[in-house]
Design a protein that fits this description.
Order of helices and strands of chain B: HEHEEHEEHEHEHEEHEH
Oligomer: heterodimer
Low-confidence stretches of chain A: none
Number of strands of chain A: 24
Strand content of chain B: 15-25%
Shape of chain A: elongated
Distance between the termini of chain B: 39 Å
Radius of gyration of chain A: 37 Å
Largest sheet of chain B: 6 strands, mixed
């Protein structure tokens, strides 16, 4: 808390002489007053009875004097104007994190490439603010603080693409990745790492496994899965198509969580009798049209993208691993019947996630030796940390202490 | 005069009579007589004691010597009276003054007040035709002044003004000066149980009075405004004691002092020594009036 504490009016320290003067004066005034008496023997008796206490308090200052001394000291310090100045190197280090699948491959001793890159970067931190940045397809997540965000240590679903590092090449930035990248200004903490054999894809109960030299097929007990929720309310044609798509892609139907694709009947709010369900479908892709009894579907993080509208209402939306459908019954379709199937197949193929254990071949490639390089230019803090009002705090404390001294003295 | 061994505050060892002291002495005898008349009734307003010329009667007070009771009056009036007598012209008084250093504690110094009291008693004695021997304890020998008539009074004042409270002379040595006295006044602070030994002064047919003088700072430190850190100094032995005086210390001192005074008063009462403790802040007229008219 007192890092970088400075005094804007050092001459104010002269006021510290005041408590010293008060202390000396108090000692002077409290100096034992010599008094003649013929009853010293009686006083000695009194002293002996309270010897322990008397010896300790013989020349003790009264509490009110101590409080006054503290008040004067606090006031003097307030006069000296304590302020916390920004640290000498007021810079920020923006760590741009590569969260692509390769970063979650094992590097060594159970640690991922991300773990290694973060660790070697953290060891190099100096007196600077730290911001962690994870670029997304649109925008980026930012977390301030020296500690790496723990939630970022697990591979995101769906997988994130590798950041476009050239867009992040700037002063005060460092790339947290697995291999050295061409840069102009930014630094880099690259984990490096050997190639990592493992599954690339799954089809039915066959897994395509890369050994490091070749791709081989292996049997697997973990086929890709499709789950269908609210099947009894989905239009029969949509349900039939989904099953056909799963069969063609060799997906197994499952009711478990965490399937590679989930088709769900969803509606935004309650169905209302007075609202006609029959709408004219307006497919985003061309080639077919039709009518349907459909309800609007909610748009959220799991299914943010509208794929099919009925009037102004979204009736089919999708997102990574999720398709939401509000079509309860399809009416008459017009146009090319094949176009309907092709459009829906493209929707499912776009939404489906790869199996979590499958990482593309290029991600599994060796990442070299890695290394650590600081940014060539530092990035200054835009807004230096504001100094807490130390002077006001001290002045307040001085006032309270002075009041307490007054009350104690009167008491 | 230099204070003994660094004692400064509250030490007034010398005796100085003010310009109006002689006039106050002249006024004291009528004032005392008037006080006694108010107390005992007209016709009996004389400072008198046992075994001398008959002067009258006064009501008996509880605690008085039953030998003084007039049994005839008791039988006739069914009320107790005691005989009041006048001392014969040849009676001798002895006034014994403690001159030790502790008598310098004040203000005013206890020796100062003792000197004033002895002058007033001397005036009283001379007025009654008695002779007075005034003795002051001192080292190496006690000092003495003989007062036989009023004309000797200036000499007594000079004698007393030459006295200084110092040292720790033995008060008991003054007992030889009181050998032939019918009335003895002991004046001092009598701090310490062996300072005034009643057995040394009590005699059959002799009246002994003890006037103990204490300075305000000794009698009631709280009333004297004493507080904070104090370094007590004993003028006689030069001993010192530093301590903080607060309310609890003052209360404890008061209790211890009362115990000490009561013990000493009881010893005097057993030997029929009239005894009183007085604050030197009071004027000598008040002290003597209270001591003699009671």
């Amino acid at each position: 808390m007192l890092d970088g504490l400075e005094w804007s009016r050092p001459v104010g320290f002269l006021a510290l002489l005041l408590p010293v003067v008060v202390l000396l004066a108090s000692r002077l005034l409290n100096r034992p007053l010599p008094r003649a008496t013929g009853t010293l023997a009686i006083w000695r008796t009194v002293r002996d009875h309270r010897r322990t206490e008397g010896a300790r308090r013989r020349f003790a200052l009264p509490l009110s004097t101590w409080l006054l001394l503290c008040a004067l000291s606090a006031g003097a310090l307030a006069l000296a104007g304590p302020v916390r100045t920004p640290r000498a190197v007021a810079t920020v280090l923006e760590c741009v994190v590569d969260a692509s699948p390769s970063m979650y491959l094992e590097h060594s001793a159970g640690r991922t490439r991300l773990d290694v890159a973060v660790a070697q970067l953290a060891d190099s931190f100096e007196e600077q603010e730290v911001v962690w940045i994870r670029p997304l397809a649109t925008g980026a997540e930012r977390v301030e603080g020296r500690a790496f965000p723990s939630a970022w240590r697990t591979a995101p679903r769906p997988p994130l693409e590798e950041p476009r590092f050239e867009e992040w090449d700037g002063a005060g930035r460092v790339f947290v990745t697995d291999r050295m990248r061409p840069r102009d200004v930014a630094g880099e903490s690259a984990s490096g790492g050997a190639l990592v054999p493992g599954p690339l894809a799954v089809r039915g109960r066959t897994e395509f496994h890369w050994t490091g030299e070749a791709i081989v097929e292996r049997a697997t007990e973990q086929p890709a899965r499709l789950s269908i929720r609210g099947a009894d309310r989905l239009a029969a044609e949509v349900l039939e198509f989904a099953r056909t798509w799963a069969a063609a892609r060799e997906f197994e139907l499952s009711a478990a969580e965490g399937c590679e694709l989930e088709l769900a009947f969803a509606q935004d709010g309650e169905l209302r009798e007075d609202v006609p369900l029959t709408r004219v479908l307006a497919p985003l892709a061309g080639g077919w049209s039709g009518t349907a009894d459909a309800v609007p579907v909610p748009l959220d993080a799991r299914a943010p993208t509208i794929w099919l509208r009925a009037g102004d209402a979204p009736v089919v939306a999708h997102g990574p691993g999720s398709v939401r459908c509000g079509i309860a019954r399809l009416g008459e379709l017009t146009g090319d019947p094949a176009a309907f199937a092709v459009d829906w197949a493209e929707l499912f193929d776009r939404a489906v996630l790869p199996p979590a254990r499958c990482v593309p071949l290029e991600e599994r490639a060796a990442a070299g030796d890695g290394g650590l390089e600081a940014p060539r230019e530092a990035k200054p803090l835009e807004a230096p940390l504001e100094s807490p009002p130390y002077a006001a705090w001290l002045a307040g404390a001085a006032s309270v202490l002075a009041l307490a001294a007054l009350v104690t003295r009167r008491g | 005069m230099k204070s003994p061994r660094g004692t400064r505050e509250g030490f007034h060892p010398e005796v100085r009579f003010g310009e109006d002291f002689a006039r106050r002495l002249e006024l004291f005898c009528p004032r005392l007589r008037a006080a006694r008349e108010r107390r005992e009734g007209a016709g009996a307003a004389r400072f008198s004691g046992a075994g001398e010329e008959f002067a009258g009667f006064r009501p008996y007070r509880p605690g008085e010597d039953l030998r003084q009771l007039d049994w005839n009056l008791l039988a006739r009036l069914d009320r107790p009276f005691v005989r009041v007598t006048r001392r014969e012209a040849s009676e001798r008084w002895a006034i014994l003054i403690d001159g030790s250093a502790s008598m310098g504690v004040g203000p005013p110094g206890k020796l100062q007040r003792a000197a004033e009291l002895s002058c007033a008693l001397g005036m009283l004695a001379v007025a009654q035709g008695a002779s007075v021997g005034i003795s002051v304890s001192a080292d190496p020998e006690p000092l003495h002044f003989e007062l036989r008539r009023r004309a000797d009074m200036p000499g007594l004042l000079r004698f007393l003004e030459e006295r200084v409270a110092r040292g720790d002379p033995e008060f008991a040595r003054l007992s030889s000066r009181a050998r032939d006295a019918g009335r003895v006044f002991c004046i001092g602070d009598f701090l310490g149980e062996d300072v005034l030994d009643p057995t040394r002064f009590a005699r059959r047919g002799r009246e002994v009075f003890g006037l103990r003088l204490l300075a305000p700072v000794e009698l009631a430190p709280g009333s004297a405004g004493l507080g904070g850190a104090v370094e007590w100094a004993d003028p006689e032995r030069g001993e010192r004691l530093s301590m903080r005086i607060d309310r609890s210390a003052r209360d404890a001192y008061d209790r211890a002092l009362r115990v000490s005074l009561r013990r000493f008063d009881a010893a005097c009462a057993r030997h029929r020594i009239g005894f009183g403790t007085y604050d030197t802040a009071r004027e000598f007229e008040d002290i003597l009036t209270e001591a003699l008219v009671r």
